[in-house]
Amino acid sequence: MPSFAPQSLRRVLLVYELAFIALVVVTGAMGGLWAYFWQETSTESLRLNALTNTMQETRGVLFQQIQEVALARLRNDPEAEDIHGRYYRRIQEGFNVLRRQSASRAEDYAVQHMQEAYGRLQADLHASLDDPYFLNRIVRLRALDARREPSLLGGFDEACLSFQRLVETELAAQAEWIGRWTRYAPYLLPVPMLLALAVLFFSRRSLTRGFVRPMRAIIQGTERMSGGELSRRLPVAGVTEVALLAESVNRLASDLALSRDALVESERQAALGALVPVVAHNIRNPLAAIRASAQLLEHVDDPAESREIANEIVATVDRLGRWVSALVSYLHPLKPRLTVTPAARVFAAVLDLIAPRAREREVRLARQPWQEGAWVAVDSDLMEQALYGLLGNALEASARGAVLRAGLQVSDTQVIFEIEDEAGGIPFIPEPAGLEPGPSTKRFGTGLGIPVAFKVCKTHGWTLEFSVVNSRGTRVTITAPRHLEDADESL
């Protein structure tokens, strides 16, 4: 039993479809991961920068609070408390924003540390501004000096600086993470392309080895089988379906070879069955004539009559020899050697060759209609033999004084040879594959002129037809394809 491929074509295709789907998923996942990374890093950068901006804004509002509240107290402005309250709420809102923007426990602690420092700052500020002993105009004016901002903010600045360092540390970590991704990106991005090329290479290689090559071998093998090489066997290889196909074609070729052998044997037996009566008929009659003539010799005393009988015996033996030679020639395979030749030249050569016999029988040869200028691809020797046999048949059947017409007609694509006698019409229509002798008036014929003509025309690819013309005579028509060359050339 042949060993089939372990996988079917359907399974191979399914595997590679799944591989391509997985490749698409991996590529999409990498693209999505990359987009998610940039989105997250961008969002985080915006958040950290927003934290810094909010912290700076809150610090600036705090300094404005110190200046405006101190100035209001210097003026003994009754709205000093309202001013203080508005700034206090703005600063608390800033701390709330920082808490909402924070995303880690360390950031929450840093915001809480700034808020606690702000509380202490507010307490110190109230104590210094509300003290009746230390609060005089000069002290209050110094409190409004911008150069005293660091000393006024005190611990709040330290808390802000700590918060700033924390944010800068996180920004540095993020920058390092982005740098790492940027360094690895040139190596990660080609991965899907390499995977795609690998899948394409292996799928092409697998399909070529499992499907394309075996199918090519099957096509080439079946073409040779169609040419008659039924003993050739196809290699059983490739995927399961292709291997099964090759095995089926091999079985079919074996069956066809057996059928062909049986058909050839049957045809051979049929041919022998058809040939035997012909051989028996064409040998028995001459032998019977020879026997009768030999018996007459025993009772004839006249030397002249004896010579006549002896001549008759010799003529009969010669006729038998000619028939055997014609039979051997008919059964021998023909291999025409075609040359491009004027059709009129071929037909005229045969007419010139048979003209002496026509004059002897007082039969007039008429070339009508006769059109020249056409060329045919022909083996002149074989075709002249066939035409001579057909003309000889017509001549033997014609009476003295009759007219034997030989015509040559030309069309754009065909050349037609015609032979028409006035012998009353052929008593039977010959068959292309027939060897059975038909009724004949010829004394010295072999009975194989028509079969030989059929065989010669068949090897040339020409057609030969017989018909009766108004019960007046027989018309023989040979149709040949016209060659379009205008000069002799070997094929």
What does this entry show, briefly?
With 491 residues, this protein is α+β, with helices and mostly antiparallel strands. The protein has twelve helices and seven strands.
Descriptive terms for the model:
single chain, 491 residues, alpha+beta, Four Helix Bundle (Hemerythrin (Met), subunit A), Helix Hairpins, Heat Shock Protein 90, 5-stranded mixed β-sheet, two-stranded antiparallel ribbon, 12 helices, 7 strands, rod-shaped, disordered N terminus
CATH topology of the largest domain: Four Helix Bundle (Hemerythrin (Met), subunit A)
Largest β sheet strand count, sense and barrel closure = 5 strands, mixed
CATH architectural label of the largest domain: Up-down Bundle
**Strand tally:** 7
Tally of individual domains = 3
Output the strand order for the largest sheet: 2-4-5-7-6
Number of helices: 12
| Relative helix content | 55-70%
Segments where pLDDT lies below 50 for 5+ residues? 1-5, 133-141, 437-446, 486-491
Overall average residue pLDDT: 77
Strand portion: 5-15%
Distance between the termini: 49 Å
Overall geometry: rod-shaped
Q: Strand pairing plus helix content: what structural class?
A: alpha+beta
Radius of gyration: 59 Å
Element order: H for helix, E for strand: HHHHHHHHHEHEEHEEHEE
State the name of the first-level CATH class of the largest domain: Mainly Alpha
